[in-house]
Amino acid sequence: MAAFLGGVYGREWLVEEATREPRAPAASRLRQLRVVVAYELKMTAPLSVPLRHGDKVWTPARRIPGKQHYGIWDEENRAFIHNSYPGGVQYATAEQFINGQYVIEKRAAPGFEHQVVLGPRAHLGSDYDLLSFNCEHFVNYVADGEKKSLQLQVLMVGGLLLGGLAWLLSSGDDRPRDSKGRFVRG
């Protein structure tokens, strides 16, 4: 579950914690706690702004102008975890990933950086799928718990609108026409 928490975004998990009371019955020694991994708000970063462990980042895509490529920065491995074709979810150095500039879309809250990176690491080796698990789906899923791709949604809506417009233009007036496209009387 993703939530907005007064200046930060967060993802919530339920975890169990053992109580320290030795006399408590076994069933009551475990209780569920809500753990929220929070993110700071979006910021555009020049290359001089250092990346922090767990940053959710995008950079201009190399193969498709006007699109973004997404990844999570793993400071311990000094690499991005991203999903691309071919290869699926994998590590890439900053030089391989960043295409001139980058945007830090979300920063892991201090103290939660390690938990943020555990999700992407668990998906290493997963396959790429343009329609259901592309780089944006992957990063949004591990950061927010939702497989969503705004870029793909915009592309699909644009395609539907163009298709509808083409259909409207082609299914217009049925009156007979001559070889030059002018209407002829009947």
What does this structure look like?
- By secondary structure, this protein is α+β, with helices and mostly antiparallel strands.
- The protein has a domain at about 40-165.
- The protein has 5 helices and 9 strands.
- It has helices spanning about 25-30, 95, 115-120, 135-145, 150-170, and strands at about 1-5, 10-20, 30-40, 45, 55-60, 70-75, 80-85, 90, 100-110.
- Strands 1, 2, 3, 4, 5, 6, 7, 8 and 9 form a 9-stranded antiparallel beta sheet that branches.
- A hairpin with a 3-residue loop joins strand 1 and strand 2.
- Helix 3 crosses helix 4.
- The protein starts with a strand and ends in a 16-residue tail after the last helix.
- Residues about 1-20 and about 25-45 have low confidence and may be disordered.
Characteristic terms for this protein:
disordered N terminus, 186 residues, 9-stranded antiparallel β-sheet, alpha+beta, 26% helix
- What are the low-pLDDT stretches, counting only 5+ consecutive residues below 50? 1-22, 24-43
Secondary-structure class: alpha+beta
Work out the radius of gyration. 24 Å
Distance between the termini: 65 Å
Shape: elongated
- State the helix count: 5
